[in-house]
Amino acid sequence: MIEIIPAIDIIGGECVRLTQGDYGRKTTYFKDPAEVAARYESIGLRRIHLVDLDGAKASAPANLKVLERVAARTGLDIQWGGGIKSADSLRAVLESGANRAICGSVAVTDPEAFAEWLAGFGPDHVILGADVRDGKVATHGWLRESELGVEELIDRFAPCGLNQVICTDISKDGMLQGPSFGMYGRLQTRYSVINITVSGGIGSLDDILKLNDMGLRSVIVGKAIYEGRITLKELETCLRNG
Asked: Is 169 an annotated catalytic residue?
C-alpha cells in the first residue's frame, strides 16, 4: 500500500495551511502541531511531513522548538522542510529530531552544496524538494521562479545517489481537486529507483487509491484531512486493510 504521510505546515508555531503557496491565503487549524502529530501516530501512521513556512521565508529554520516537541512526544519518522540553506541548518534540523530533511531551494541555487550534503549526510536523510509551477521549479517558499524543469533538477542529482524526491504541484496545492496524475506517473516511470512522493491536490481517499494503483510509493496529504474530505477513521481502516 502507498505510504500516507500527513502534512503539518507551521507558521508562528501553529498548524496552518496555505492555498497554492499564498501566504495571504492562510487558514489556522490547530494551535499545537505536536498534538496533531500524536493523533496521527495513534491511528497507525508512521511518518509525518512538517513544513516550517516561517523558515522558508526567512531562509533559516524558525520553528525547531516545534520539531523538538513532536520528536519528544511521538515515535514518528519526521521529515522536515523549510529554510535549510546551509549545512549547519541541515545539521540542526536532524539534531532537533528530524529523520529526513527536505532541501529544495539550495538544490537550484547551489547544486554543488546539495551534492555535498547528499554525500555527507547520506541520501536516506536528505530529500530533494521539487516544487513545480507551470512546469518550472519554484524556490524560497514558492516565492521565486527558476528556469529548471523537474526532470532536469532530478537528473542533476541522480548520479549522486539521490533516492527521495517530494514533488509538489503548486497549482494543485490546497485545491482538493486531485493531483497531477499524469506528471507523477511519468516521473515514477522515468525514475524507477527513486521514491517520488506525491504532494498537492489530494482531495479524497479515491485519489490516494488511484496513485497506489499507479505504483506510486508515497503521498502527502494535508488540507483534505483538515477539511474532513478524508477522515482519520478512513485512514485507519485503509492502513489496517493495507
From this structure: no
